[in-house]
Amino acid sequence: MDETRWEPLEWGTYAHSLGHRLVVIRKIRKYSQEDLAERAGLHRNQISNLERGTGNGGLRVSDPVLSTVYRLARALDVPPAYLLPDLRSPVALRSAEQTSRIELSAVEVQLRDLLERQFGDGA
Question: Which intervals hold domain HTH cro/C1-type (predicted)?
Fold first, then answer.
């Protein structure tokens, strides 16, 4: 049996990765935060908080429930996996996407390519 010791995740890095993905896809779709909120049945403040990786008042890290992720994916017309960071590797203590600007840029390129292949030029 694996004797791996439990360590708390640096959840903020994952929240910021999800927020970055949300901003990239929203902008590709040419939606404002208000547009996305209306399409998803959420408040614009929720979209803003998720994009910044913060909760109400900015005092805590955002932690969206699964239904919120699916509502956003549906509103953006993308698979939910496009919003979730680091899906191709085991969960690390911190999101690999947050290690450098190069990693963040690579995510943007990957999402643009995925959306263009899936939906054509009118992503």
Answer: 22-83
51-71 pLDDT, tens digit each:
999 987 767 899 999 999 999
pLDDT over 70, % of the chain = 91
Instruction: Determine the average pLDDT of the residues in 97-105.
Output: 87
Q: Residue ranges per domain, the chain?
A: 11-122
CA-based torsion, 48, 56, 98, 91: positive or negative = negative
Closest CA to 13 of 106, 82, 90, 98: 98
Residue whose C-alpha is closest to residue 95's, from 83, 80, 113: 83
pLDDT tens by residue, 1-13: 455 666 788 999 9
Residues with Cβ within 8 Å of 29's Cβ and at least 6 positions away in sequence, in order, are 36, 76, 77, 123
Instruction: Assign domain 11-122 to its CATH superfamily.
Output: lambda repressor-like DNA-binding domains (1.10.260.40)
- Extract the tokens encoding 1: 């049996």
* Tokens of residue 31, six digits: 């939606």
